[in-house]
Amino acid sequence: MDVLGTRLEALERRVGGAADRTGAEGLAAQVAHIERRLSKILADNAALALGLEKYEKLRDVIEGDGDMELQRRLLGVDAKVELILLNEDAPAVLSDLRTIHDLQSRINQPEYAAVAGLLPQVCGLEQRHGGQAAEFRQVVAEVSSLVDRYHAETEALSEMFIRWDQALTAIERRDVAYGYRVPKKLEDPDYSPEQLQNRQQSARLVCLVNAFRSIGHRATDLDPLKLQSRQAIPELDPARYGIVDPHERFDVNGILSIAADDGSTTATAAEIFEALSAIYCGHVAFEFEHIPEMAEKKWFADYVESTSREGELDAAKKRRFHELLARRSPAAPKHTLTITLAAAAVFDNFMQKKFGQVKRYGLEGAESAIVALDELFSLCSSTGISEAVVGMPHRGRLNILIDLLKYPARALFHKLQGNAEFPGGLPASGDVVSHISSSSSLSYGSEGALKVTMLPNPSHLEAVNPVAMGYGRAKQMYLYDHNTDPGCALGDRLVGVQLHGDAAFTGQGVVMETLGLSNLPHFSLGGTIHIIVNNQIGFTTPMTNARSTHYTSDVGKMVNAPVIHVNGDYPEEVARAIRIAFEYRKLYRKDVIIDLITFRRWGHNELDEPSLTQPRMYDIIRARESIPHLYERRVLADNVISEADAEATRASFASHLEGELAASKEYVPQARELKGKWAGMVVSTGATGQMDTGVAVDTLREVGERSVAVGPGFKVHPRLVKRHIQPRLKQLAEGTGVDWSTAESLALGSLLREGYNIRLCGQDVGRGTFSQRHAMFVCQDTENVCVPLNSGGDGHGKIEVVNSNLSELAVLGFEYGVSIQSPTTLPIWEAQFGDFNNTAQVIIDTYIASGETKWLLQSGLVMLLPHGYDGAGPDHSSSRMERFLQLCDTPMDVSGNNSVQNPNMHVAVPTTPAQIFHLLRRQMVRPYRKPLVVAGPKTILRLAAATSTLSEMGPGTSFRPVLPDDHVTSPDKVRRVVLVSGKLYYDLAKARIEQGEGAGDRVALVRVEELCPFPSRELASELARFPNAAEVVWCQEETMNAGAFSFVQPRLQSILPSAMPIHYIGRGPLAAPATGVASVYKAEQADIIRRALTCA
User: Fold this and answer.
1) 3-state secondary structure string, 93-134?
2) pTM reported for the whole predicted model
3) What is the CATH number that goes with domain 315-666?
4) Lowest CB count within 10 Å: 248, 700, 998, 1089, which one?
């Protein structure tokens, strides 16, 4: 480069004379070419810029001497580099980084450093001596050659950074903050200086445009029934902003995203007003100005406005929508749906004729919802999305199943004729037709197949929302973790779809709770598309009494979701609304709401008479055409189809339904459950016996040590070091004194080691309500988070530690959704206090307790519910275990063969760390999944008497439903057997010791660790140890109308001699779970202990 520069200087001194214009032009072109290439390399290479930024952070790694420990010390607490060095891919990544370093070193050499300064020399020389073109061309050729070399080096560097960034992304997917996912923040460009200047000069027009964007929706034609009159909105009058001349011309650049056919950005006031009215006040309305991010608002306005001139749909799309509204032949080509919209009309008419007394909750009046879903699924298929998870209520469910999701009509008709939907012999009670689920594969032409899963729903409206969200998240995390594309993000492979009713969307709190999860890092789906099927009425309640907001969708603004309102009478506009929503979600990975305004042709169900309460509305409905007929008239007028085509479509589908009805007589249901990932599971109808859930002691020590290990530079709080880490390491070394949190960590860590994944979720679960768990550490210097159990190698599972928001209903529903998606993930939900589970009662009743019975959906969900009376008052004492026990389907007579039934869920009250260790491991080791409810401890979490040894968790050990009284030295002297669960045992045992010698010979304390399934055999065996016992006592600290007594008493009586009574000792009946007066609590507790140990 120095030689070349010298030649340039010498050339400038020698040459002179007039310029040769031709040569100068040629030289200028070449110089401009060089300048453009350098500009591209140095200014426009985003990947290079990103790489250089990361390179600076990793200089110590790149220039290290190869010693990994030394490099880790140099790096300190840089979290991303810690990930690289903790990962087995580190050597390959470091090799890449060193290559980057070599390239960077070469690019920084003097000859390259002079390239940027060379161009001004060449340009100046050309300006002064352009006539000497020949020699200049030789010099420029050398410059160009040098630039080519520079370009090659920087391109290689850029490609290396891209590869390295992809590798880093892959590593981050397995990072210590497993599951923490946030969408990439997009920074849309701001207005250019020219646009800003134009906005200032045309401030009047800016005000008018902003008015249309903000409140244009209030003047839109949205109501198919015309019950809601269109308002006159003064703010939309141009004169309000001083625009009075319709011929006045404005430059709309930077103000409105419309352009003339010739590309011109100028328009008259009249043309602008017409465009704004068409865009914002037609049959589609938009609300997006509430979004706080300016870039999102700008994108939304630009997209809506710029796509408003796309023109009419082509004939093929119109035919398809007609078919969706007016069913075509099943033998049609694959690029159209096999079940389509005369389908909706024909299907509803068929159902009314054949099953007129069935409450089917049809879609008549809202058939455009089928168009919406079809357009959405088509877009998913064309953009690489492979799965869609749908949660919806009863309204229109059968239409969508039959018309769109390929659910066999014969299976539906079989069910409607009073038959079961499951094969004979399976332990399922079934459910009503409006709760049917489906999983089908849809094909849209040459695009890939789209798997659509519609989850079962209860009649509790909107309760399915968090379940669908959790199911989709679990499925998406699997797709995400197993995707080989490093650029894959949440939302790329799966979309969540939720349909809602207008009254329920506003009225049910679970809607708000679920929306509250939508943007949280451990809950996000990458955006859900919500479609409110707005019938403008809730059963018999009009809109004026159903909500306090203007729109039913207004609650969605709590998460800043954009809202698109659309008149359901216009299927093509409905499809356009879907396209806009889909593009927004694809770009920003956030929720978006479509308010599909329709009507309900019949009452709440087909047997209801709606005019009793809404006479005017139903006079209008009965006098108007259906949506399929309206759309058919439009496509007939456009010559898209003929009358004969329309009639043939309807006739073909009607004939198809008749054939399916005939086939339903011989239809035999097929088992759809326990397929795919669930193929290894079994339907458990009987007890499987005790399972060995123990783990080698050396493995337990290794897992336990890893549970408190952090990397160099990570500063743990000193109190944790003293009170958590050091005691745990001591317990592991000695093999004794293992406390509750250590046993829990050993269970979870050993399951991770076996390849299972775990999701631990709830309020404050990372630390634990009682500061006992510490599954995650927070660096005191940087606030970086470390989950030590995630430091396992290849083949290990991952634990996702989720400190949830302050919700029980939606969060528990979410975790249930996770649990039914895969048998290889252990989902654990812990309530802050067990008392708070009652705010999620709908999920407990309709899903957790009955999901397998109704739908054959197994769930391994664990509910950890801190429980125990310690003077904390009525709302911090009881998990209300009596409610869970009441939901269990175990028989009351557990004598003989009745004792082997495996109930719908298991309820346990473990009292030792070894017991919780085995319970958690048992959830995954056994070949089926059952919900587990654990009334867990509070005060005994650190109780010295409530500890275990590692040998109690070693090989050959398992959970014990009954723990015998090992302190009884003479069983034949025992006169009273006290059966007890929970921490009350330790109070009784302590008091018995304090009574002195001989107390243990009169009263035996037997712990019932698992209440359901009731341990009849184990109890009978233990009671047989005491041949002279005169009485059996059930002792509890709960009130008589709570706790386990009412569940235990009849079952225990069935295995005892009839002459032996069962006595109750505990608190008396009380409406509240516990007293809030400390002195009363202490007196009650002391009385219970005294009475339990007093034996004649």
Assistant:
1) HHHHHHHHHHHHHHHCCHHHHCHHHHHHHHHHHHHHHCCCHH
2) 0.84
3) 3.40.50.970
4) 998
